[in-house]
Design goal:
The chain is mainly α and about 350 residues long. About 55% of the residues lie in helices and about 5% in strands. The chain has 15 helices and 5 strands. It has a 5-stranded mixed sheet. Helix 1 packs across helix 6. The longest helix has 25 residues. It is globular, with a radius of gyration of 20 Å.
Length: about 350
């Protein structure tokens, strides 16, 4: 477990390896920003909530890694306060947030003066700190195969997978809101400027320059990898192999969840979050729909029915607002018609 106190992190990095697979996978998600195109001039100040008591989770509702932590908090029924980081305007690169987490990555958990960065560390911290709540730990006798599943899930390059699906659309079916075509185009345009923005922030905040410049260099290298259709095809093939192994395990074990039938664990939260991202990207037909992996399809359906999963999903109104501000004017006439239908269905269900 790696964590630090808030007053100790101002000019020092958390003591962890910057080259671990989990760190690089999680860092690759940070550049996914749903934005209205041109970044507004914002000077973010440290929110008053940061001085509060109890658990505070700094997150973004569209972040893959934040989704995992939020679902765990709901499953364990732990009271917490959520602070939504405005990634649209680079709040995660603001001085106050860099003082909280110099790596500028989400999610971050604060418990008084204690700061825990990164989804995997937060999940482990919750288990250690709140032993009387519902346990999400894998059993001590959990199959080594399942433990391998968790390691794979923790190390997947979700940002590369997501942006790669935008750049190589022939591999995807029908992307879902909010990752529809106009939004994808806006995100890709935003990706092109991220390296320059990071270097600009490094100049503005010299105490964090080393980290920000490393992130900029990493982003530039990652762009070259993402642009390769060959690499993206290999990534999808690796996912095929992984999900085939999960399918076979579910069939052989006849379990509802990866560690049994009594309840979900951390590894189930990770798998459900992955399947949801693949669904939103329009990759469900490749990986499980149509009977190609029936056990996995049933598993995802069960996961979606859990209240903890539903609590984390953005509302229709939130999604439509995000899509609207990310849509260029030429697309908005058609989008308005779709939005009115979705909003009407939402109101009728109230």
């Amino acid at each position: 477990m790696v964590f630090h106190t808030r007053n100790a992190c101002k000019n020092h990095l958390p003591p962890r390896s910057p080259n671990s697979a989990c760190d690089l996978a999680e860092a690759s998600e940070d550049s996914l920003e749903l934005t209205c195109g041109k970044m507004a001039e914002h000077k973010f100040k440290r929110p008053s909530i940061a001085s509060g008591d109890g658990l505070i989770i700094y997150c973004n509702q569209y972040s893959y890694y934040c989704h995992k932590v939020l679902q765990a908090l709901h499953e364990k029924d732990i009271p917490f306060t959520k602070y939504e980081i405005d990634v649209t305007n680079d709040e995660h690169f603001s001085e106050w947030f860099l003082e909280l987490n110099p790596r500028a990555e989400l999610p971050v958990l604060q418990n008084g003066l204690l700061i825990v960065p990164g989804s995997s560390r937060i999940l482990d911290y919750l288990e250690e700190t709140f032993p009387k709540t519902k346990s999400l730990r894998m059993p001590h006798d959990a199959d080594t195969v399942v433990r391998g599943f968790r390691q794979t899930l923790d190390n997947l390059p979700i940002g590369v997978l997501t942006i790669g699906s935008f750049l190589h659309p022939r591999y995807t079916g029908s992307p879902k809101f909010p990752f529809v075509l106009p939004v994808r185009q806006t995100i890709l345009a935003r990706e092109e400027t991220l390296g320059d923005r990071l270097r600009s922030y490094a100049t503005e905040y010299p105490a964090f320059a080393e980290v920000l410049l490393k992130k900029a260099d990493f982003h530039d290298r990652k762009r070259g990898i993402i642009a390769s259709e060959e690499y993206f095809g290999k990534l999808l093939s690796a996912l095929d192999e992984f999900l085939t192994n999960v399918e076979r395990y579910l069939e052989a074990s006849e379990r509802e969840w990866l560690c049994g039938t009594e309840g979900i664990t951390i590894v189930d939260i990770g798998l459900a979050t992955l399947l949801n991202r693949l669904y939103v990207l329009g990759l469900e037909d490749r990986f499980w729909s149509g009977g190609c992996r029936p056990r996995l399809e049933q598993y995802y359906a069960r996961a979606c029915q859990r209240s903890s999963f539903q609590c984390v999903l953005p509302s229709k109104v939130s999604i439509l607002r995000t899509v609207w501000i990310n849509t260029p004017p030429m697309y908005k006439a058609g989008l308005a018609a779709v939005s009115s239908v979705l909003l009407s269905s939402t109101l009728l269900k109230r």
